[in-house]
């Protein structure tokens, strides 16, 4: 018997075409004839600001209706859909004709979506703290500033707090463009039940910070080991005699450097503002493309977004041609493999698991078909997550 309930679709009110652009052209006058009327231009900007605010408020109202349509859910995490956000942001990039860059528009729309989602309840995101780390910047880039941050002392604690439900999601670094893989993150997936729900690419700029702001005072430099490595050539040229001390995070390095005039820290510029330090120099990273990739971890899986990546952990039986049999079904279906790396398998001496990243979503062909074939050869195939490719 057919369902007798009627579905009501909310349709946004029809709007008259916005004339702001044409009016602004009139306000500035004919090209080459005099200067624009400054008061008229400002009046147009004020009018546009009013329209933007009205539209944002309208969007927030519709976001509330989405919440009502989903019914009574358990928590904020039940309202969050990374695949939907990725689709929205890709359309923002596709529509952009300037003058603002894609990254600026993506950032603005991310904050709008973050604020709208927080009407239900702010998400709580665990990250490697304390405040002022690049991990916190990655949280803001992925979830916006309306999400709540939960700074934690280690990557392991981020996994534990998400698994226990004390954080809705976690953000953990997994690789750097110059220094390679963060092994401690990969090793957590050997035993953790959590899923990868997203990825964040963060352009990393390193700065030398101190209390005095005078490079001649510096005898010791604190930073995370990866940051010290990213600035190795600069340190060798500018502070060859200074002691280098690796600590658990860049924010912790700033806290230590703040205790003495002869100490400095390498960290992001944000940390200088958070801890009241002076910038001696920066950016000081050795590579101009210095980028760190972060993974978003959560307790569940999400549907396809249309442009996805899948992470696998494959445990291979010890037999000739085993790795070939795992990779051949991917190659035969023209599935691009972005990454492969081996890690020692826990509980078995000299046995290895392969961390593999490929294009596609586990619920869609051709990847779905390839995994069915791979499973027959592998000792175990664990899908760590299918998630949207990072939006530029």
From TrEMBL:
Gene3D superfamilies: 3.30.70.260, Chorismate mutase, Periplasmic binding protein-like II. SMART domains: CM_2. One of its GO terms (molecular function) is prephenate dehydratase activity. Pfam families: ACT, CM_2, PDT. GO terms for cellular component: cytoplasm. Coiled coil: none annotated. Residues 124-299 form the Prephenate dehydratase domain. The keyword Mitochondrion does not apply. Its main location: cytoplasm. It comes from the Bacteria. Residues 311-388 form the ACT domain. It is found in: Cytoplasm. The keyword Isomerase applies. Residues 1-21 are annotated as: Disordered. Its EC number is 4.2.1.51, 5.4.99.5. It catalyses: prephenate + H(+) = 3-phenylpyruvate + CO2 + H2O; chorismate = prephenate. Pathway: Metabolic intermediate biosynthesis; prephenate biosynthesis; prephenate from chorismate: step 1/1; Amino-acid biosynthesis; L-phenylalanine biosynthesis; phenylpyruvate from prephenate: step 1/1. GO terms for biological process: chorismate metabolic process; L-phenylalanine biosynthetic process. Catalyzes the Claisen rearrangement of chorismate to prephenate and the decarboxylation/dehydration of prephenate to phenylpyruvate. This is Bifunctional chorismate mutase/prephenate dehydratase.
